[in-house]
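Record minuted for everyone:
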Amino acid sequence: MTLKIHIDDGAPPYEQVRAQISEQARAGVLPVGYRLPTVRGLAESLGLAANTVAKAYRALEGDGVIETRGRNGTFVAAAGAAAERELASAAQDYAERARRLGAGEGDAVAAVRDAVRAVYGD
């Protein structure tokens, strides 16, 4: 696992850790079952506070990307299906809310496109 923290990046360090681990897990670079370093170990290797890494791990666990098995450690979870379900649920919630707000289908899709471009930088 290779992570790089860019201090001059606008994203907070915990978000950089979260995003990089998430991307590596989804791309298969970190396979399901891969044991992640301890919070303290990763914090030390990246020159970050342990609380920063702990915050990233909590976010990743909430996203279903990793799972903590108590004293056995933290592992990459089989999150593909869970992530797809959560994405579909979020999309359903958005579509229902857009309709309640009176937005047409075209406007709702355009708003999603704009949001995705803003987040992904496209």
